[in-house]
Amino acid sequence: MTRFDGRCHCGAVRFSVETDLAQVISCNCSICSRHGLLLSFVPAERFTLTAGEEALKDYRFNTMRIRHRFCGQCGVEPFAEGAMPDGSPMRAVNVRCLDGVDLAGLTLTPFDGRNLR
Question: Global pTM?
């Protein structure tokens, strides 16, 4: 595991996360494709919001199970909150918001969220 710092575009929302980036999801659902999200799913205990709770806004759609968190100032979605299949709390971190990550060096795992029913 590596510790990464991350933030939204304007820096109002900041966080740290421990992940190995071994599996970075590229989902084609309507929200991920429109936002250009690349996601790393981690247990909630490996994620720490360090600044900006007051700047965060929420968006839920479809099944309403995922709480998409975005900065009310710049509009960037640095992470989402939800549950793993076993019910344990998780965070879906937008890898594009992590400092120092070479996106070209990542191996992306496609996920067909568009046709998930």
Answer: 0.93
